[in-house]
Specification:
Belongs to the class-I pyridine nucleotide-disulfide oxidoreductase family. It is a single chain. The protein is globular and about 75 Å long. Strands 1, 2, 3, 4, 5, 6 and 17 form a 7-stranded mixed beta sheet that branches. The chain has a 5-stranded parallel beta sheet with strand order 8-15-9-10-11. Strands 18-19-22-21-20 form a 5-stranded antiparallel beta sheet, sandwiched between helices. The protein is built from 13 helices and 22 strands. α3 packs across α6. By secondary structure, it is α/β, with parallel strands linked by helices. It binds flavin-adenine dinucleotide.
Length: about 475
C-alpha cells in the first residue's frame, strides 16, 4: 500500500546494538530501515542508561573529591546543587549523542520509521504510530528490541515515589532517605549519585555480597567505602512488601534467619534486573522462538531459528551490556551482507562505574576454581601505587588471574578509580593469548594506574616480592 516500506535489512530497535547493525549494513551496501518506537534514537544506553548515568556519576565524583580534599588542605564550601541545571546538562549530553545518531543515519540513507513494530509474518513488520500503520517488508531482519527494568508484584510501581533506573535518572528531587533495592551495578551506580547529592542511602541485596557477579575480594573495597558513607547496606536480606503510606513507603525486610523488620523511606529505587523485550514483538508470527523469560536464542552468527532473522543485544541474553550489543550488531550486519563473520570474542568486560569502580573480565577466581583450573594469581594492592596515593586513594586492588599450566592470562578483577579503563588491557591480553611474561615485560607508563596490571603480573611471576 501507499507509504509501505521495504528494506533489504530491517533493524527493529535503535539501541547500541540496533544502530550499530543498521550503520554497518548500510556501509556494506544494503538498503536499511531502522524501526524505533521512541522519538530519539540510541535506545536505553544513550537515553536512560550508560550515558546519562555517567554524566551524573561525574557530578558525584566532583562533589566527593571536593569534600575529601578538605583532609589534604584544600577546602571548598558545601556544594550547592541546582538540580534543574544538573538535569539540563545531563539531558544536553544525551541530546548531543542522540542527535548525532540521526545525522549518521541520514548520511548513510538509513530510513528511520518511528513507531511500535510487531512481526505479522516471516518477512513483514507492522509499525504502529499515532498516524497509523506502516508495513515494513524485509529480506533480512535484525531484532534489537533490548530490555526493560523488572517490576515486582509486591511493589506499588504506580506510586511516583517508587522509581526504576529511568526514574532515578530523571532527577525528580533528592529524597531524604532512599532505599535501593538490588545491590547490582545499576543500583549501586544510582546509589553513588544520590549519596553525593545528599540522600541518606540504604542498599538491600538478597545475596551475600554486592555485585554478585564479581569476586568478593574485588568488591570489598567498594563495600567498605560505601558502608562508611551510606546509612546501611543490608546483605542476605529480601524485601517482602512495600506499602505506600502518606508519610512515605513502608518497607518490610526479611533477613536470612527469617526475621522481619520495617522501615519507611521517601523513595524506593527498584534495580533488581532487566527483562528482555522478546515477548513484545510477536516474534512467533515470523517463526522465531522466544523463551519463557523473553530471550531469543541465536547461533554463533546471531541467527535465530529463521536463518534470515538475526537477534542481538539485551534481547539475546546476558551480559546485558552495550559493548556486547555493539559487537553482536556488527556480526549480524556483516553476516546479513554476506560476509564471513561469527561471534568469536573470548571475553566481555563488565564495569560498575561506582566510586571506586569495580571491573572484571574473563574468568573470575571463583569461576576458574569451579572449572577445576589450576588457578594462579597476582594481586597488587594500590596502597603501593604512587599514582593511586597521589589521587588521595589507597583502597584499590588489581588481581590478574592466570592458568598455572601455561601462565596464560584468563581473567582479572580490578577495583579502584578508573578500573573500567584498566580492565581493557587485560581483555586484549586474553584475546591475544598473552601470558604473565607478556604483561610483566611490557613497559607501562609511570606513574599511572595501568602499572598495577604490570605489577600484578610481576607478582605472579615472583619478580616483585616486596611492596615499597
Ligand atoms: P536497547 O538499548 O534496550 O534498545 C532497544 C531499542 O529498541 C529501544 O530504543 C526501544 O525503544 C526499541 N524497541 C524495543 N521494542 C520495540 C518495538 N517493538 N518497536 C520499536 N522499537 C522498539 N551498559 C554498558 O555497557 N555500560 C554502562 O555503563 C551501562 N549503564 C547502564 C545504566 C543503566 C541505568 C541501564 C538501565 C543500563 C545500562 N547499561 C550499560 C546497559 C545498556 O544500556 C544495554 O545493555 C544496552 O542499551 C542494550 O542495547 P540493545 O541495543 O540491546 O537495546
Amino acid at each position: 500500500g501507499k507509504g509501505d516500506v521495504h528494506g533489504e535489512v530491517v533493524v527493529l530497535g535503535s539501541g547500541p546494538g540496533g544502530y550499530t547493525a543498521a550503520f554497518r549494513a548500510a556501509d556494506l551496501g544494503k538498503k536499511v530501515v531502522l524501526i524505533e518506537k521512541d522519538s530519539n534514537l540510541g535506545g536505553v544506553c544513550l537515553n536512560v542508561g550508560c550515558i546519562p548515568s555517567k554524566a551524573l556519576l561525574h557530578a558525584a565524583k566532583v562533589i566527593t573529591e571536593a569534600e575529601e580534599m578538605g583532609e589534604h588542605g584544600i577546602s571548598f564550601a558545601k556544594p550547592k546543587t541546582d538540580i534543574d541545571k544538573l538535569r539540563d546538562w545531563k539531558d544536553s549530553v544525551v541530546k548531543q549523542l542522540t542527535g548525532g545518531l540521526s545525522g549518521l543515519a541520514k548520511g548513510r540513507k538509513v530510513q528511520v520509521v518511528n513507531g511500535y513494530g510487531r512481526f505479522s509474518g516471516p518477512n513483514m513488520i507492522e509499525v504502529q504510530n499515532d498516524e497509523g500503520l506502516t508495513k515494513v517488508s524485509f529480506d533480512q531482519c535484525i531484532i534489537a528490541a533490548g530490555s526493560e527494568p523488572v517490576t515486582l508484584p509486591f511493589i506499588p510501581h504506580d506510586d511516583d515515589r517508587v522509581i526504576d533506573s529511568t526514574g532515578a535518572l530523571e532527577l525528580d528531587g533528592i529524597p531524604k532517605r532512599l532505599l535501593v533495592l538490588g545491590g547490582g551495578i545499576i543500583g549501586l551506580e544510582m546509589a553513588c549519585v544520590y549519596d553525593a547529592l545528599g540522600s541518606r542511602v540504604t542498599v538491600v541485596e538478597l545475596m551475600d555480597q554486592l555485585i554478585p557477579g564479581a569476586d568478593k575480594d574485588i568488591v570489598k573495597p567498594l563495600h567498605k567505602r560505601i558502608e562508611g558513607r551510606y546509612e546501611a547496606i543490608k546483605l542476605k536480606t529480601k524485601v517482602t512488601a512495600v506499602e505506600a503510606q502518606k508519610k512515605g513507603l513502608k518497607v518490610t525486610f526479611e533477613d536470612d534467619k527469617g526475621e522481619s523488620s520495617t522501615d519507611t523511606f521517601d523513595k524506593v529505587l527498584v534495580a533488581v534486573g532487566r527483562r528482555p523485550n522478546g515477548k513484545l514483538v510477536d516474534a512467533e508470527k515470523a517463526g522465531v522462538a522466544v523463551d519463557d523469560r523473553g530471550f531469543i536464542a541465536v547461533d554463533g552468527q546471531q541467527r535465530t531459528g529463521q536463518s534470515h532473522i538475526f537477534a542481538i543485544g539485551d534481547v539475546v541474553g546476558q551480559p546485558m551490556l552495550a559493548h556486547k550489543a555493539v559487537h553482536e550488531g556488527k556480526v549480524a550486519a556483516e553476516v546479513a551482507a554476506g560476509h564471513k563473520r561469527h561471534f568469536d570474542a573470548k571475553v566481555i568486560p563488565s564495569v560498575a562505574y561506582t566510586d571506586p569502580e569495580v571491573a572484571w573480565v574473563g574468568l573470575t577466581e571463583t569461576q576458574a576454581k569451579e572449572r577445576g583450573i589450576k588457578v594462579g594469581k597476582g594481586v597488587f594492592p594500590w596502597a603501593a601505587s604512587g599514582r593511586s596515593l597521589s589521587l588521595g586513594r589507597s583502597e584499590g586492588v588489581t588481581k590478574v588471574i592466570f592458568d598455572e599450566e601455561d601462565d596464560r592470562v584468563i581473567g582479572a578483577g580490578i577495583v579502584g578509580p578508573n578500573a573500567g579503563d584498566l580492565v581493557a588491557e587485560v581483555a586484549l591480553a586474553i584475546e591475544m593469548g598473552a601470558d604473565a611474561v607478556d604483561l610483566g615485560h611490557t613497559i607501562h607508563p609511570h606513574p599511572t594506574l595501568s602499572e598495577t596490571v604490570n605489577f600484578a603480573a610481576e607478582m605472579f611471576e615472583g619478580t616483585i616480592t616486596d611492596l615499597m
